[in-house]
Amino acid sequence: MCDFGLDGLSSGRSPDRLDALVWAVTALTFGARGEPRVRGL
Hints:
Layout: E1 4-5, E2 8-9, H1 16-30
Antiparallel strand pairs: 1-2
């Protein structure tokens, strides 16, 4: 994350992992909180 700038990564590689990390942290932080979906038999 420290290597990420306005033009992407300094090595020119895709920032896909950084993007996935941001989405994962967002989902875990602000995700829907509710009851676990467990079906009874």
